[in-house]
Design brief:
CATH superfamily of the largest domain: Glycogen Phosphorylase B
Distance between the termini: 12 Å
Strand content: 15-25%
Radius of gyration: 20 Å
Mean pLDDT: 91
Helix content: 40-55%
CATH topology of the largest domain: Rossmann fold
Shape: globular
Largest sheet: 7 strands, parallel
CATH class of the largest domain: Alpha Beta
Length: about 350
């Protein structure tokens, strides 16, 4: 059995939902795990894994009106980097004292760097490296943004022995150390029994203020999660985030509206929910998710919410559901089998 340091990005819940399933599997196999993370992932993973979770500084993104705020993001991250430097000795000591056999990172740069400086084998499990390690088909107008994102991704995590990629769309790996898998789906989603009720579920992952105002002009019910209040306003129900409530409403939704974040798209595909994506402007990863979502016939992608586009989306609901019923929507076993074999190989050769 192996001693594993597992680092993951704390931005949003996508990294932590898939990491939770992978760590459960690793621990069930008898491996000893230490988790390095921050932010929202810290909050989620501490609930289940407690003392094995260690907080490290991490990078964050700042949004307004569904657009990435570069200036605010740079300022906040400069402050984070300063804090990271201050605590580097402590972080290094926790890493060394654990004496890991290998390191796994889900787009978390500190653990990736520690793996290299301590000469420990590194495994990358994420979706980000799909943009660098596989062949992505994209219109020329997006190539400049893709190149910029590729530079960032390569600077964050590099030199892994294996790259295990997970997403809802398959692309061809460029090398023999990169492998693609269908989505990792958390157990809470696997346990749901989906129905088709008379409301559209909205997750406000970014500032949707201008979009939500238009809902009142539509003859549909909307349930908006991640709101700052809980109230009923005509055909709109506002909900603060609660995991149990969210899962209940996700299971019953007619369709889902949100940004083009990978985690919610994957869970909606698994539950066969048509998806209307509003990619965050300036985030090429979300733009690509939206392009493939529409290309595969699982939903529609809009730069900006328009009532006419929404009505067209709803009119295609049956077609979307048919396509969703054909999707390979869960790759947990395939990913776990490959990860087991990779760890076994690393331990054998160490």
């Amino acid at each position: 059995m192996a001693k594993i340091i597992y680092g993951l990005s704390g931005q949003g819940f996508g990294h932590s939902t898939r990491t939770k399933e992978i760590i459960r599997h690793l621990m069930d196999c008898g491996h000893q795990v230490k988790i390095f993370t921050y932010g929202q992932a810290l909050f989620m993973l501490e609930k289940e894994f407690g003392h094995i979770v260690f907080e490290v500084p991490g990078l964050i993104l700042n949004y307004k009106n569904n657009k990435l705020q570069y200036g605010k993001t740079i300022l906040l991250n400069a402050q984070k980097i300063a804090k990271q430097a201050k605590h580097w000795n402590k972080i290094s000591k926790v890493f060394a004292d654990f004496q890991p056999d290998l390191v796994i990172t889900d787009f978390e740069p500190i653990t990736a760097l520690l793996a290299k400086t301590n000469k420990k084998p590194l495994i990358s499990i994420d979706n980000q490296h799909q943009l660098t390690n596989t062949k992505i088909k994209l219109a020329k107008k997006f190539l400049k943004e893709l190149l910029a994102d590729q530079i960032v991704i390569k600077s964050m995590v590099w030199g892994a022995k294996y790259y295990l990629l997970t997403s809802f769309y398959e692309t061809q790996p460029k090398d023999k150390k990169t492998f693609w898998f269908p989505p990792i789906i958390r157990q809470e989603i696997l346990d749901l029994k989906p129905t088709n009720q008379d409301y559209i579920l909205v997750y406000e992952g970014a500032d949707f203020g201008n979009t939500i105002k238009q809902f009142k002009h539509l003859n549909y019910n909307f349930v908006v999660f991640n709101a700052s209040r809980e109230e009923q306003d005509d055909n709109i129900t506002y909900k603060k985030f609660s995991t149990d409530e969210w899962l209940k409403y996700l299971a019953g939704a007619k369709a889902v509206i949100s940004t083009a974040g990978l985690s919610l798209i994957c869970e909606s595909i698994y539950l066969q929910k048509p998806y209307l994506a509003l990619p965050i402007q300036g985030q090429i990863e979300q733009i690509i998710n939206g392009i493939y979502l529409e290309k595969m016939g699982f939903g529609k992608t809009l730069d900006k919410f328009q009532i006419t586009d929404f009505k067209k989306f709803i009119s295609e609901e049956k077609n979307y559901r048919h396509n969703l019923s054909q999707a390979e929507a869960c790759g947990n076993k395939k990913m776990f089998d490959k990860l087991d074999s990779v760890i076994k190989e690393i331990i054998k050769n160490s």
